[in-house]
């Protein structure tokens, strides 16, 4: 017998849970793409995307996933022969750097490992060593989806300024935007990359690039820019189709409009606080389960450096894979794989998992997922200390 029948919960770090309101917004006939509602909707979306990113500057919308948004950023930022510095704190920092290299950009990467954020002293030394200011751009993730580390973006900007380095600052917020505090203009960010399928609660298929006026001027002659990826046309379209490089992604736009309405109704500070509390509940559960059990623990030791949208954890091989299989099969809860923590062919791969708490998620969803996990730990005989659900519940009650 399985207890999985009923509404399932996919607690993976994207695609995230889509609200019923968003699903209903998409459930309609194709619209007129030449005039009317869709045109008004698209203009309002651009304005509200700026608010979510904390900027009054430029935004370009692409029909793509997050990898496409990387390519949009790279194509507009760089010319052939340009050089970048990548600050990697996990798989997605490495991925953005590799995408840039594939376009012929020279990238130096500082690998800070999988268990902590960017070290500002190491960054300062790398910038000081760049005497000729060859680095045009510094690339960094705000939250790395694989390791669940949060980087201090304001501190990266402060380090650039303290050293007197003129490089642009480009930030990947795909796993953080709409989940935890991010302020593009206030933190001195020149370019922000985002996507629709996580905190923005919309199906995969839309990528976003917000860019400062400074970045626009510095990259005006970028020769990697192609007609499709060109941000200047999308940010200042003379005709409606230029927003999207062709036919509009009609139903994604209806979905995103509804999601942005929901974000505005709750308010970003309340959203950030909700994610903070739910993330803390997950951390409390793992701390309780791991009491006296060294195999169980969170990937990031310091709470200040943990993502508020996703938590990477270890249970020891093969227990993480066994637990993921059990929760999905027996209870209808899907947990995330331990992406990038070990190669899939390595037995250690089966010791890691991730729990997402991003976007359209509330207390009963998070507490329910944790209760299912504790039931699975018991059912499978995985060594742990009981009390994770109670610890999580106390965290939620404390708010």
What does this structure look like?
- By secondary structure, the protein is of the alpha/beta class.
- The protein folds into two domains: 9-16 and 267-398, Aspartate Aminotransferase, domain 1 (Alpha-Beta Complex), CATH 3.90.1150; 31-264, Aspartate Aminotransferase, domain 2, CATH 3.40.640.10.
- 40% of the residues lie in helices and 15% in strands.
- The protein has 13 helices and twelve strands.
- The chain has helices at 20-26, 37-53, 66-77, 91-102, 120-129, 153-163, 213-218, 231-235, 250-266, 268-289, 319-331, 363-380, 388-398; strands spanning 9-11, 58-63, 83-88, 106-111, 135-141, 168-172, 191-195, 206-211, 297-298, 310-314, 333-337, 352-356.
- A seven-stranded mixed β-sheet has the order 2-8-7-6-5-3-4, with helices on both faces. It has a five-stranded mixed β-sheet with strand order 1-11-12-10-9.
- Helix 4 links the parallel strand 3 (83-88) and strand 4.
- Helix 11 crosses helix 12 (363-380).
- The chain is globular, with a radius of gyration of 21 Å.
């Amino acid at each position: 017998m399985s207890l999985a029948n009923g509404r399932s919960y996919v607690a993976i770090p994207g695609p995230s849970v889509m609200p019923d309101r968003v699903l209903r917004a998409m459930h309609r006939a194709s619209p007129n793409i030449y005039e009317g509602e869709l045109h008004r909707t698209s203009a309002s979306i651009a304005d509200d995307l700026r608010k979510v990113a904390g900027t009054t500057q430029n935004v370009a919308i692409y029909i793509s996933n997050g990898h496409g948004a990387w390519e949009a950023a790279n194509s507009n930022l760089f010319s052939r022969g340009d050089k970048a510095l990548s600050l990697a704190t996990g798989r997605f920092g490495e991925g953005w750097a590799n995408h840039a290299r594939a376009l012929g950009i020279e990238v130096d990467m500082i690998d800070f490992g999988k268990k902590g954020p960017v070290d500002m002293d190491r960054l300062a030394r790398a910038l000081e060593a760049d005497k000729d200011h060859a680095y045009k751009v510094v690339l960094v993730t705000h939250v790395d989806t694989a390791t669940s580390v949060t980087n201090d973006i304001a501190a990266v900007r402060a380090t650039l300024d303290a050293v007197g380095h003129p490089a642009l600052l480009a930030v990947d917020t795909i796993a953080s935007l709409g989940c935890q505090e991010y302020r593009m203009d206030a933190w001195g960010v020149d370019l922000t990359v985002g996507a629709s399928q996580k905190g923005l609660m919309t199906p995969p298929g839309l990528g976003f690039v917000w860019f400062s006026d400074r970045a626009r001027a510095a990259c005006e002659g970028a020769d990697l820019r192609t007609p499709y990826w060109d941000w200047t046309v999308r940010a200042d379209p003379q005709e409606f189709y230029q927003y999207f490089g062709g036919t509009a992604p009609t139903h994604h736009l209806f979905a995103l409009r509804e999601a942005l309405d929901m974000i505005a109704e709750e308010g970003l500070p309340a959203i950030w606080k909700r994610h903070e509390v739910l993330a803390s509940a997950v951390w409390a559960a793992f701390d309780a389960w791991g009491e006296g059990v060294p195999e169980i623990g969170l990937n990031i030791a310091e709470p200040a450096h943990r993502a508020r949208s996703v938590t990477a954890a270890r249970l020891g091989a093969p227990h993480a894979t066994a637990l993921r299989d059990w929760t999905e099969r027996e209870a209808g809860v899907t947990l995330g794989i331990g992406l990038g923590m070990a190669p899939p062919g390595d037995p250690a791969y089966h010791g890691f998992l991730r729990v997402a708490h991003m976007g359209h998620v509330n207390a009963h969803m998070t507490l329910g997922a944790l209760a299912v996990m504790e039931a699975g730990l018991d059912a499978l005989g995985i060594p742990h200390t009981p009390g994770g659900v109670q610890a999580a519940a106390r965290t939620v009650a404390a708010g």
